[in-house]
Amino acid sequence: MWRHAARLVLDALAPRRCAVCERVAGDALCPPCLEEMCARRPPASRTTPHGLAAAGFEFEGAVRAALHGGKYRGDRAALRLLAAVAVPRLRARLPLPAAVTCVPLGRRRLRSRGYNQAEEIAGVVATELDCPFVAGLERLRDTPPQSSRDEGERRRNVAGAFMWRGVDLEGARLWLVDDVLTTGATTSAAASALEAAGATRVDVAVVAAVL
Ligand SMILES: [Zn+2]
Predict the structure, then answer these.
(1) What is the DSSP string of 87-151?
(2) Spelled out in words, what is the top-level CATH class assigned to the domain 42-209?
(3) N or C end of the chain, less CB within 10 A?
(4) Ligand 1 centre and the CA of 66: distance in Å?
(5) What would the pLDDT profile of 181-211 be if each residue is shown by its tens digit?
């Protein structure tokens, strides 16, 4: 809490620095770093049992550094800027949704981080698409971190971990937003919960995908 408050004060006093190269910049990312990101082609989209999964960028280099800052150093401005840059790329690859939702964080992680990075991104995506953001996906249990598991383990780890407790989704086509897509085990389990609640199609929209 105090650390968060101190960070806000320091952020207000210190010049804004690029989340990737730390040069003083007018925004969360400097123009050369943004240019480097945008010069790379977005990865090919994947089909899923629920629709398509598309990423704005490959999870590497400047994008990886900016997402890391957004997740672990409280740099929400970097997350929002990355999301805004990713939207046109996502829009070109996915059918437009009726609403946008996001993968939730477990309660414990939400408490320690103070915000859900996927929700920060989803808020920008909804604004840019001019469609509503709907919250209501909940984690029924805190699942252990996925990074050290193989794909089969990841799927078992998150199966049945989500439930929808928001507005009626009957017939809705949604974008499910997350920061990074790896095997897709987490988004697939979350999409299943959205379909169980009535959604007819769930496309996964992420800032970056691990290839
Ligand atoms: Zn930079």
Answers:
(1) HHHHHTTSPPPSEEEEPPPPHHHHHHHSS-HHHHHHHHHHHHHT--B---EEESSPPPPSTTS-H
(2) alpha beta
(3) N
(4) 9
(5) 999 999 999 999 999 999 999 999 999 999 8
